[in-house]
Predict the 3D structure of the following.
Amino acid sequence: MRSKTRRNVLALLGCGVTVGLTGSAVVYAQPEKTPLAIVNNQTNTDQVVTSTIRTAGEDETLVDDTQTISVDDEQGYTELVADKPLIVTVRTDSGLEETYRWTATAAENGLGVGITTDGIDFTVATPS
């Protein structure tokens, strides 16, 4: 198993997702053959966030999780499948909701989901 620190993943995800994120490293244990998704709260209030991740073809639910994510904090998901399109839906208790079809699900890729007061943005990280 390999691990990715918060800083390594955020470096992959780019500055659009890292805005407002600071603090100590958080480690997510990532199985070697699965991609990683991180949902981070970039607002100035705690957010109740529901994240649903399912396979596009078989419609198998991999994640159905509701968490309160503190200001400048995140929730990571590592038990995903590689090389299959995934449908990622993120919604907040404040009424924001977005769905993203993630097709770049190679094992080394990551998906950053940034929640701001204006919306929810998705950024795919592919190592070069």
